Give the backbone structure.
Amino acid sequence: MKKKKKWCHNAQESKVNQFIFFEDGEKKMNEKKIKLAGTEEVRDFVREAGKCDFDIDISYNRVIIDAKSFLGVLSLDLNRELTVKYGGHDMNFENVLSKYATA
């Protein structure tokens, strides 16, 4: 399957985001595994996610939550490893992900 790269310019933050689209038009999502230990870490994560202009989902098993929702993220089982899927790039958000990343 051939990949096509599409560059999108975000004028608001003067950043360039790279999205990879497959020929069928589906956008490739980045995926990271994280672990949040408590409400302070959830607040930090959700605050940075809220600053991003792209969709971010956080999931555990079959439950998928909007990562920009504080109460939604708190409703997840924080004792488990969580999967974050997102379709853009923001260095501050990437730093938060690496802060809470698991192996």
Q: What stands out?
A: The radius of gyration is 14 Å. The first strand starts at residue 3 and ends at 10.
